[in-house]
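Example 3.2
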Amino acid sequence: MLQITRALGAMPPLYSYAAGRRRLRFIILASALLFALAFFLLGDVSAPFSSVTFRPPGWTRKRPAGNASSHGQQHPIDELIEEANSRFRGLLSKRSYTVSQAASRYRERRGRHPPPGFEAWFAQAQKDGAVIVEEFFDRIHHDINPFWGLNPKDLRAQATVQPQVIRVRNGKADFVTDDPNRQPWIQHWTELVKDMMPHLPDLDMVINFMDETRILVPWEKIAEYMKAEQANRKLIDPKAATTAYSGLKDVEGEKAPYDPGWISGDAPKFWDYLRAACPPDSPSRNVAALPSFNVSIEYPTEPMPFTFKGFIQNFTQAQDPCLQPHLRGMHGTFIESVSMSTTRSLLPMFAGSKLPQNNEILIPGAMYLSDREFYNGGETHGPNWSYKRNGLIWRGTASGGRNKEDTWWHFHRHRFVQMMNGTTVGAMEAGNEARGPTFRLLPKERYSLPSQLQGKLGEWLSSFSDVAFVNLECHPYAEEEVGTGADKHMEMRRTCPYSSPYMAIQPGKPMKEQYEYKYLPDVDGNSFSARWRAFLQSTSMPLKATIYSEWHDDRIIPWVHFVPFDNSYGDIYAIMDYFLDGRDKAAEIIATEGKKWVEQVYRREDMKLYVWRLLLEYARVVDDKRDILAFIEDLK
C-alpha cells in the first residue's frame, strides 16, 4: 500500500537544477520543422494520445559520461516534450480519408463491424473537414462497452422513465425535463443532437444535470460486464448483418418506474463509494475516507508511478484517485461536494465530465456549446506571444465543494491560491507555517530550485504570479465591496470569516485581459473546469491539473498541446522555473501548437461528430439485435 504521511518526509531528489541544465533549441526547432513537414505532407493531420504511457515507470535514459555543466544536463521536461512529440508524429499517418479506411481501422481496433449509419457519419466528417483518427474515439468504447453486459431491453426501460431525457423520434430531437429553471445544459445538448438529424435512430439520452458525478459501480461488477462484452465481441459474417435498428416501440406505452437506488446526504464519505470502484490491488482500494478533516494535509512519501523525475509522464494516471490515496484529503470532491446523488447500479446516463471510476457516458460539456465568451473564448484569443506579459494569471471562485470552518484548508482551489501567492510562500519560508495551512513547502532538495535554495521562492513567485479568488464561497459567508473592472467600480463580493484572514479577494479579469498573460493554469471547480477549451484556443500556454475525465482526452496531448501538473500542485514551481529560465520559445511552441490543433479537432463540428458516432454505438447496444447490427457496405 502506498504510504502517506502528514510530514513530507525524505524522498530522493528528482532533478538537480544546481547540476546544470541546457536548452534543447535544436530539439525544439527540429520538432517544429518536422511538424511543418508532416502538415505539408499529410494535410495538416495530427493525432492524440493523452492516454498513453510514454515509457515504463522504471525507464531511465543513458547519460553521457562526465559531469554536466550549467545547462549541460538534459532537463526531464525536455525529455517529456521530445518523447510526446515523437509519439504525436508517429500517429500522424493514422488519419482515415475514406469510409473504407475508417471502417477497416474500426474493425482492427474494436473487434466488431462499425454500427449502421457509419457511412453517413463519415460523409459528414468529410464535409466538415474533420480529422478522423480511430484513437480519437477510444473514450466512446471505454464508456459503452460495460453496457454490452446488460440486457438491452432493461437499458431501454431504465432510460425512458428518467426525469431529464433527450428524445430522438422519427428523425427529430427534443427534450423532457422536470426542472426547466435549471441551467440550460439539456437545451444546449439537444441543439447539438438536432444538428445530426435525420440520421439518428430513435433513442433516449438520460442526462446528468448536476455538477457532481453520479454512477459508481463496484469494480467487480464492471469486470463482470466487461467479461461478457469481450466474450461476445466478434466480426460477424457480413451475410448475417442487418442495418435496420429496431426502434423504441416497446417503451412508448405504459412505463414501469425505475429507481437506480440513489444515495444522497453522505458527501463527506464519497471517497468510500469511489474506492469500491477501484481495482482490488490499487493503492486507494483499502484506504478509508478520513473520519475527520480537522487534520493536517497528507502528502505521499514516495514518487508517484506516473511521474518521470518529478513531472507528469502519464496524464491519465495522474487523474486517477485510485492511484493516489492522499487525494482523499486534498480535493474538494472527496471532502464534501455541494450535493451528492450517486448509485452503484449501471444506468445509461450521459454527462459532460466524470471521475475515471464513474460509469457515465461522456459527451462534451454543455458550457463548451455556450455562446458565452467565458466558455468559448470569444472572437479574439489574445495577442501574439511577444506582446504578452511574462506572467501567470488565474481568477475564480472558491468552489470545489462545500467548504467549512474545519475543512476549508483541504480544498484544492484554496491550496492553489495559497501556493501561488508570493507573500504567503515568503511567510512560510520565514518559518510562519501557520500562514499556509493548505499546503507544505517541499524540501529544498526535491527540485533544487535556485529561488528556494536561496530562500527567495516567495519573492520569485511575486515576480510573475497573479492568482486570486474573486469570491470566497463558504458557509456562512459575508460580503464586502471590491473594486472591479477597468474603472474599478465597486461591487459586492462574497468573503468568509474563517478563510478571509488567509487570502484576499481580488477584482475579476475578463478573458480578454487574461489572454494578455503567457501562462494560463486551470484547476477543477465543483467538477471539471468549463474554461479549459477557451484556454486551449488562446495564444497563451495552458497548464492543467484535474481528476476529471472529458470527451476530448484522447485528442489533446500533454507536453504537446498543454502542460500537465500534479493535483497536489507540488510540481508547479519547478514547471514554471523551467519555462521562465530561458525556455520561453518552448512555451510559445506549446501555446501555438495547442491553438492550431484545437482549431482542427475541437470545433463545434468535432463535438457534433463525436456525439453522433457515440449515439450510433449507444443505439446499437440498447437494441435487441445488437449482435448483428453492422455497417458492412464497404465489404461488398
